[in-house]
Design a protein that fits this description.
290 residues; 2 domains
Length: 290
């Protein structure tokens, strides 16, 4: 019996991975901390990850924009971990805080108090590491100017203290950031800007995220077929809460709480409701017991 030439073997028999879906073979799972990872499959997200690795090697202020829940915080941690994961990582929410409070919190008070209970300035806490200013779409002008002055000092080599990497995040659209009276144009020009697309524009990520959250939230091992079926139903949802919303829904699924989708008409929200039959049985059981 002659051996069949390899060139004549059907691709599905020649390659053991050929029967696996693309989202399974092409996904990338990047561990960041315990039970925290960056999961990407869509080509745009893979390009963003590659760019983040480059920015981590040559630190410059980074601006991450995108809707709530798209993964800006995870990308911030990824940029930090790609640089020096053992350096300090400090994140602070800036939305709604006035200039005086932010200047004092970020740079420290002009007249340091001897009180030991006074928290250290953020630039001191994050010295040599990464400082993330979250939701900075309304950052006061005085804070913007002070940050630019610090960056100029660091570039000139005269800055004695400060983070190695600055990252700012916001869910404010760029057109609003550029609007008159918003952020200073010269401040925005300092950043390497990365826009993270919403989940509805990168649906290739949904099966990979479903698989990751499924295994994270439960010890049960779901088959690829069942995961693809679930991801197919979820693909029709707009996901206004993006990845964060998907994670919450997978937590419900893992906990056995029944849910189903309303994807017709204007209402595309997810609603949780117990099965009618089970509800009736439970109600009947309580009556019988009474």
């Amino acid at each position: 019996m002659k051996d069949t030439p390899e060139s004549q073997i059907p691709p599905e028999e020649n390659d053991p991975l050929s029967s696996l879906p693309d989202w399974f073979t092409q996904r990338e799972i990047i561990p960041l901390e315990d039970h925290l990872a960056l999961v990407v499959c869509h080509e745009t997200m893979r390009a963003i990850v590659a760019l983040c690795r480059v920015l981590a090697d040559a630190p410059a202020p980074v601006l991450l924009t995108g809707e709530t829940g798209v993964g800006k915080s995870l990308l911030s941690r990824f940029i930090h971990a790609s640089g020096d994961p053992y350096a300090p990582f400090v994140s602070h929410l800036t939305a709604g805080l006035d200039a005086r409070m932010l200047l004092e919190r970020i740079f420290g008070p002009d007249s340091p108090s001897p009180d030991e209970g006074t928290p250290r300035a953020l630039i001191e806490e994050a010295s040599g590491g990464t400082l993330v200013l979250e939701e900075m779409g309304d950052l006061p002008t005085a804070v913007q100017q002070r940050l630019m002055a610090l960056w100029d000092e660091q570039a000139a080599g005269s800055g004695d203290i400060g983070p190695r990497q600055f990252i700012c995040t916001t869910n404010t659209p760029r057109r609003l950031l550029l609007a008159p009276g918003a952020l200073l144009p010269e401040f925005l020009e300092r950043f390497r800007h990365i826009h993270v697309p919403p989940l509805r524009e990168r649906k290739e990520d949904i099966p990979a995220l479903v698989a990751y959250f499924s295994r994270l939230k439960t010890s049960r091992t779901a088959s690829l077929k069942s995961l693809e079926s679930l991801a197919g139903r979820l693909a029709n949802h707009a996901f206004p809460g993006n990845v964060r919303e998907l994670e919450s829904l997978m937590a419900l699924e893992a906990g056995g709480l029944p849910w189903r989708w309303r994807v017709t008409g204007a209402d595309k929200a997810c609603c949780v409701r117990p099965p009618v039959g089970n509800t009736a049985k439970r109600a009947g059981g309580r009556k019988k017991k009474a």
